[in-house]
Amino acid sequence: MAKAYDIPADKLISKIAENLKKDKKLEPLPWIAFVKTGCHVDKIPQNKDWWYLRCASLLRKVYIHGPVSISDLKSVYGGKKQIGYNLAHHKDAGGAIIRKALQQLESSGYIVKNARGRVLSDEGMKRIDRIATDLYKELIIATPALQRYG
Questions:
Q1: Distance (Å, rounded) from C-alpha 36 to C-alpha 44?
Q2: pTM value?
Q3: Closest to 39 (Cα-Cα) out of 86, 69, 74, 11
Q4: How far apart are alpha carbons 73 and 94 in whole angstroms?
Q5: Residues β-bridged to residue 38
Q6: 3-state secondary structure string, 49-87?
Q7: How many Å apart are CA 28 and CA 42, to the nearest integer?
Q8: Coil, helix or strand for 135?
Q9: Pick from 10, 36, 47, 129: CA 20 to 30 A from residue 138's CA?
Q10: What distance in Å separates the CA atoms of residue 129 and residue 121, rounded to the nearest whole number?
């Protein structure tokens, strides 16, 4: 059985986002179409389904990095901001997007709030491991060189 550590992040996140979109447990908020993800970006996200991608990415981050807080995730999703001619400085991402996404994932049963932060629930762990196993089988079939060692 493959884990989330064994699969490339971009493929795993896109597959989790597809499953979250089909699952109908997560609903994008009405203000999502007009908001930037932080003060370090200039424009709103161009992908229409960016909310599901962000939720899937948050699930993967919580899976891999254990109990995490919102401030940890704000730092991870932040970026550098150029201010005039000075050197660029790191700016955190917006906290409302991360907070609302985590609240929806908690109400869906994927994440549980702990004393040290947020961790994956048993159901969330099973679902991500199942998706990772399916992706691993697809990658093995698609790559003939790996079939000998798989």
A1: 5
A2: 0.87
A3: 74
A4: 10
A5: 93
A6: CHHHHHHHHHHHHHHHHCCECHHHHHHHHCEEECCCCCC
A7: 21
A8: helix
A9: 47
A10: 12
DSSP state of 91: E
Retrieve residue 95's tokens.
């906290």
**CA 140 to mean position of chain CA atoms:** 24
Token couple for 78: 């932040």
Return the exposure string of 66-90: e unless at least 16 CB atoms fall within 10 Å of the residue's CB, then b.
eebeeeebbeebbeeeeeeeeeeee
Query: Is 66 in contact with 35 (CB distance < 8 Å)?
Result: no
For 73-124, the pLDDT digits (tens) are: 999 999 999 888 989 999 999 899 999 999 999 999 999 998 999 999 999 9
Note the pLDDT tens digit of each residue in 23-57.
888 888 888 888 888 888 888 888 888 999 999 99
